Amino acid sequence: MKALLSPEPSFSISSLQIKRPTYSDALPSSCLRFPLTDFNGHPRRRKLLPHGGGLKMKAVLDSAMMEQFGLKESDIKNPALSSTYRRSEIPKANPTVLDAQARVCTGPTQTRPLSEEQAFKVFDTILRSARGELKGEEPVSKAQLGAFFAGMTIRANAFPEETQWSEGEKRAMDVFWPLLVRALPPDVLFIADPEGSLLGTSNSVGPSFVGNESKEMRLVGALREVLAGGHLGYEEVKGVLRDVLPLGSEDGGLASGVSESLLSAFLIGQRMNRETDRELKAYCLAFDDELGGASVADVKSLTHYGEPYDGNTRFFRSTLFVATVRACYGESSLLHGVEWMPPKGGVTEEQMLKFMGAKTSLSVHQAKELIEDEKAGFAYLSLREARPSLYSLVGMREHIKKRPPLATTEKVQQFVRATGKESIVAGFYHEGYEEPLLMLMRRRGVHSGLVVKGEEGALSMTTRVRAATASKGFPVNYCSGFRSLSSETALEADGVSRQSFNLEVDARNYGFEPTETPRTDRSVSKNIELGLAALRGGKGAAYDRIVLNAGIVDHLLGCDGAEDVVVAMERAKEAIDSGKALKKLLNYIEISRKMK
Hints:
This is Glycosyl transferase family 3 domain-containing protein. InterPro entries: Nuc_phospho_transferase (IPR035902). Keywords: Glycosyltransferase, Transferase. By secondary structure, the chain is of the alpha/beta class. Helix content is 39%, strand content 8%. The protein has 23 helices and 9 strands. The strands form 2 sheets. The protein has a 7-stranded mixed beta sheet with strand order 4-3-2-6-7-8-9, with helices on both faces.
């Protein structure tokens, strides 16, 4: 069989065999130095610093390479773990209430009501914090108050009986609500009791609360509907977001003067109610014109990679290295994300690039130039530069705890456009979000779209065999998507003909031996070591994952030269084994550093 795709709307993979050499997954430490050769392919002498408490930078970037790039050790941010990239200026959240938010600020079936003991502890913490009497832990922030009480209100108003308030929560509220009414500010009282009827008490704040200024009034009106379990229209959501963002005052408040409690309640409330397509479109498109018109790269093909912004905490993250492989045969890629993002705070592409000395504060125009530059052929763009308004929410998102709607829509962005074909690839974890992601991709007007349930909900498909006791829902390596076809096929509503597909990728069908996924456990340096060892041709689990992900994505997106999935795989291997992919990465680091 030459190709996986067929005219049918859905299918599974049939067996394909590729002859591959046998090898050991274990790589000697000598293979994990960067790089072994210079740009001309000559052997390079390595000078390693002694190891202290963690991996030293020169264990990954040797002294000669640092000299060639003009790097000093002070130029390179070198914490070994992803958690060290958290911005120190973000205030820490109160852990007691944050744990409660993890339980009650989620969906209608996932919510876990608090026990009586838990509820009493949480409400006591909130009361003491409001009174300024909390000792030994962080105060409960405004964003936490908004998110927690929004979760409680929506559960009471709209959730099924099993996830509404527990008896313990009711007893705790009986005790604490009369005290909280006298201690909490009006905006939080409105979120907790918008109708003024909580537990039969008479509270006039909720029904009469309208906010302070026109922007806050619009937010309050929208939030009333959300707290009742309702939904909003596209223009209403878009208007609220554009009114209140960016955050930006030095004390952590909103530059617009809108209450943080109200905004956090709005964001988590929309997620708890399961956003409609209209609402998701608003989050996705609201700030498309924030920096003016999009830059357009003069390339035949551009793939936008939408990895979860909060990174990987357990397994190897391969997309950066996949992008270097695909660049070798003219498939340009734009990666985007942030340095650190809650709730996971895992390893991200920005951390890896910064660790290796690349510039990660590129403008949109500079990213376009790197995509067009044949020496690189891919780019990474930080949300910090691409969408400052959305980036301003990073700190608040830690205090919200659970992922807001933006965690879905930020994966479907087009920060740079292309003259040729465009595709979007996005990772997902929770069943039910694959179709909204594909809907947003179609709304973007791209030629092809693909959602992947990789490991940790990221894009990396695995060669590991699916466990017999795997959790319910779509398995890891599940893919769903569409690709544009000729005009001979019936057109969809937007005038584009597309073929839809879904499948589960089994790496054994391509001759890959089953292997356990390499663990990185938040280690930025370990993720880099694995990726660089693979780009130098070191056979093993990381190498296989890079080849698998490059070849499958090329084929499913309908890329030129990838009609035959076997050829697509072999093309990816050749890009690595020839040294071209590693050179693309080295070129990218060098070129990006010279950009002003």
